[in-house]
């Protein structure tokens, strides 16, 4: 059934010509929808632990990106990524 909107996945495929894989990162930041500065209770995008739940174990962001790329490339033939 056609959507009445274009998902991010569809947009990236249409724009870049292939699937773009999200790299989960943990920057050690709080969520403004959880810490009370913008809202309360979180949002639909993250679990209670935050968006870094699926991040690799690297300590700095660069290491996390490289580790996540290697992990995804071991399972797919992807070429494009977006840090998330």
The portion of residues forming beta strands comes to 5-15%
What is the H-and-E element order?
HEHE
**Total beta strands:** 2
Distance between the termini: 28 Å
Task: Offer a few descriptive terms.
84 residues; two-stranded parallel ribbon; 2 strands; 10% strand
Describe the protein in words:
The protein is α+β, with helices and mostly antiparallel strands. The protein has 2 helices and 2 strands; from the N terminus they run αβαβ. Strands 1-2 form a two-stranded parallel sheet. Strand 1 (20-23), helix 2 and strand 2 form a beta-alpha-beta unit. The longest helix is centred in the last third of the chain and has 13 residues, at 61-73. The radius of gyration is 15 Å and the shape is flat. The chain starts with 7 loop residues before the first helix and ends with a strand. The mean pLDDT is 80.
Describe how the helices and strands are arranged.
Elements (H helix, E strand, L loop, with lengths): L7 H9 L3 E4 L37 H13 L6 E4 L1
Parallel strand pairs: 1-2
Task: Explain briefly what this protein structure is.
The protein is 26% helix and 10% strand.
């Amino acid at each position: 059934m056609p959507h009445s909107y274009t998902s991010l996945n569809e947009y990236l495929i249409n724009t870049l010509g292939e699937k773009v894989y999200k790299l989960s990162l943990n920057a050690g930041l709080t969520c403004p929808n959880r810490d009370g500065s913008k809202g309360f209770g979180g949002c639909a995008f993250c679990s209670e632990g935050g968006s870094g739940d699926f991040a690799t174990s690297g300590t700095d962001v660069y290491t996390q990106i490289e580790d996540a790329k290697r992990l995804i490339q071991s399972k797919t033939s992807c070429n494009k990524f977006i840090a998330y």
